[in-house]
Amino acid sequence: MEETGVIPIIRPRPPSVVMVEALDHVADKIGGKKAFIDALRLVPNDESASIVARWDHSTPAERKSFSIHQMVIGEGLNPVKVVAWIAAALYAYNSQIAHMLNAISQPAVMQAGIDSAQIIGKEGVADREMLLKISGILKDKSGALVNINVGAGGIESQEEFLKGIIDV
């Protein structure tokens, strides 16, 4: 082969090949095909339900041989949208778990703050001040009440999460 001094262009594989690996990789990363399907169960739309129904009506041998990509394409769905649906559903689900754990632990956290505020001396001053502000007894220097909403943040819906990622 003759040296031409031209650097050869390496072309990437076609997107369909990459997507097959990516979808199966996503399934592996979230715990396998069953975990992928369980995540789809959290997605509130008919399109994802068609994949779940196909899985539910298959035998264990068929499930083992299923390609996640082929299931998605076989139902006429866009793999990118399916992954986005799962991401949004898992985000919302895990966010709700975090809120639940936060709510469960609030009494213990509040008690720890109260216990800390009972320390005599400089160490307890900030905790006492914080508790008085939270309860509304003590106003901050501007005169406004301090309101701490422990459950604030996160997303409200899958649609909100998906805005800017794909057309919902």
Question: What do these coordinates show?
Answer:
The protein is built from eight helices and no strands. By secondary structure, the chain is mainly alpha-helical. The protein is elongated, with a radius of gyration of 26 Å.
Largest sheet: none
Enumerate the spans where pLDDT stays under 50 for 5 or more consecutive residues: none
Shape call: elongated
- First CA to last CA: what distance? 52 Å
- Total beta strands: 0
Number of domains: 1
- What's the multimeric state? single chain
Class by SSE composition: mainly alpha
> What is the count of DSSP helices, taking H or I runs of 4+ residues?
8
Please state the CA-atom Rg, rounded to the nearest Å. Answer: 26 Å
Order of helices and strands: HHHHHHHH
Indicate the mean pLDDT.
Answer: 76
Strand content: under 5%
Helix content: 55-70%
Write the layout of secondary structure elements.
Layout: H1 15-29, H2 33-41, H3 46-56, H4 60-65, H5 68-74, H6 79-117, H7 125-135, H8 158-162
Helix pairs in contact: 1-2, 2-3, 6-7
Could you name the key traits of this structure?
single chain; 168 residues; mainly alpha
Could you give a short description of this structure?
The protein has 168 residues and is mainly α. The chain is 61% helix and 0% strand.
